[in-house]
Amino acid sequence: MIKRAMRKQRTPWTKYSYLLWAVIFIVPLLYSVLGLDTADTGGYLYWYRYPTTPKASLFTYLSTLVGAFFLRLFPGFELLGLQLLEAVLILVLALFTYHTLKKPLGEKASLLGTAGSVCLTTTYIKIFNFHQFNMVLQVFAALWIYRGFDALLVQRAKEDAGTSCQTPGPQKQWKAYRTFFLAGLFAGAALLARITSILGLLYLPFCVLFAKGCRFKGRTLWGIGLSFVGGVALCLLCMAGGYALLGVNQRIAQEALRLKVLGGTGGSNLYSVTRMIKYLVADTAYGMLLAFGIFFFSLVGTLWSEHSLLKGKRWLAYGIRALWIFLVGLFLVLFTYFFGVFPKNWASMTGFNWLLHGALLCTALNEIVQSLRGRRDPEHRSMLLAFLGTFVLFLSFVGSAARLRHTIMGTWILLPLFFFFIGGVARKGIGPHVVFAYPLHLQRGRRLLAVVLCLSLTGPLLFHMATINMYDDANPFALTATVQAPMVRGVRTTVREAQALQGVVDHIKEHPQYPKTLMVFGNSVLFYVLTGKEAYVHPWITVYSYLTSEFVQDLAHKKEGAGPLPLIIVNRTDPYHGFAQGNYEELLLRETTRAYAQKRTVLEDYLKENRYIETYQNDYFRVYHAPKGGTQ
């Protein structure tokens, strides 16, 4: 009888839902073994291996401690274990997001949006890292806030049967206060995972303002505020105790001063506050203009096609539809990929990020205006989700030197909202769901419009997902080789990259007399863990957050110590652009002429002063060793 009931309940959507659940579970696990990034991944592995080194930043220290703990749980397969940990975090967040958004947005929109967010997030760095850990915590905080308000609204509806003046009793509000406490706990943890998440504390005034807008009384406002602050305070107190046990409290003032220098308006670094605000405004405007242009173009095509059908000109209507779909696709390709801000050969950043950012913000703005106008959703749940999703999306931008690259990690709330909007257009047309189009009514064309709008985002999303493998290659089927070295077993990359890395590792193994310290100039920070050597100065010399003045000071400090000179590995190309053979000469020229804020000049002077000699070279790396017995 139960089986018969299940057969009756099955619909065509059931099969698609199985496929989407398969995507949610399989994609993160599959991507965890594809792609060997030598830059960011190498940096994270180094900090997790040496979490107590003075160069480890306190402003991402919670992430470092978590990574260091799990690193020691996977001996021999450290990188694969940390990448599987990241995949598990994504799965947990996906399940929580779907469970939270299923009721307000519906099963289809929440499942489609969750699957899309999983696919996007897996195209970022595969290893557990502070950027993704921070975003996971921020999304949890936002969703707990939504759950808290949902509990308050449901309880009030039960108590006063639709009267919005009365506030629920304090005892029955305890369940909601617990959710706000958890939101504060996650917001505090996000602050410790990445210092720029201090802006996440703005959740507090937002919660108070939204509660006042929903006409909750003073006692409820105090309960919300104190619960959130209590969660943040508990998290900060626990971490302060941890800092005291590790003996790193004395470094906080030094780190704060360094953060002030990095966030200043001057200097050559990419973390200036002025630069961040400038690009945030410019990129948001560009993305929203791109998304609105596609929507307006699609709307005009739909109305023209429907008008022709109503006039009996069926052949003209079909011709218009074909031409319209072709032009939308052409418009999308041109503006998304050929006019992207970043060069096309950097696969990890295409113009898709601008389209995604703009489409999600346009959706959020539409939901907010529709809710404020009172045309639907009298309790403003969709407006709450739009605000929270927008805040999470902007938090993904803050603290990044790569502009909208991190947008792919902040779509967990707004992408389901986008599919909710598309579903509304398909069912009821654009009138009830689009702010400026309420006088317009579509009969036959509303589903076609919804399909084209959906494909305008999901098409580039699938292309982006298929061609992003953390810089190794745009073709995922080319990732067939592995590097025979500790900590990276089981992770696949291209044959060309594996050979380049293996050559350096084997050369160093053949010369046990080489010093135990290493200095890597370029973005191949992975060599520290591949060779088992500790950094002579900062492990990532060419990163923007490590200033040239700091590099000079560290070299001078080491010279005073009169210790042995380090082994030096110099990148001949930038691994961020991959290891493809087709554009090798261009990449070689670009890297050799790159000054890295005069750090290359400092390195060249250091090599000459200490009479280094080249002992190994391949297409991508050079190895330098000081004369036998050389010291400072």
The total strand number stands at 5
Approximate strand percentage? under 5%
Mean pLDDT: 81
Unreliable sequence segments:
163-168, 339-347, 436-440
- Contiguous helical run count: 22
Number of individual domains? 3
Main sheet?
5 strands, mixed
SSE order, one letter for each helix or strand: HHHHHHHHHHHHHHHHHHEHEHEHHEE
Termini separation: 83 Å
Helix content: 55-70%
Shape: globular
How is the quaternary structure best described?
A: single chain
Roughly how many Å is the radius of gyration? 27 Å
Major sheet: arrangement of strands:
2-1-3-5-4
Structural class: mainly alpha
Report a brief summary of the structure.
Strands 2-1-3-5-4 form a five-stranded mixed beta sheet, with helices on both faces.
Describe this structure as you would to a colleague:
The protein is built from 22 helices and 5 strands. With 632 residues, it is mainly alpha-helical. The chain folds into 3 domains: 1-262, no CATH class; 263-467, no CATH class; 495-625, no CATH class. Helix 6 crosses helix 16 (414-428) and helix 14 crosses helix 16 (414-428). The longest helix is centred in the middle third of the chain and has 38 residues, at 273-310. It is globular, with a radius of gyration of 27 Å.
Characteristic key phrases:
single chain, 632 residues, mainly alpha, 3 domains, five-stranded mixed beta sheet, 5 strands, 61% helix, 3% strand
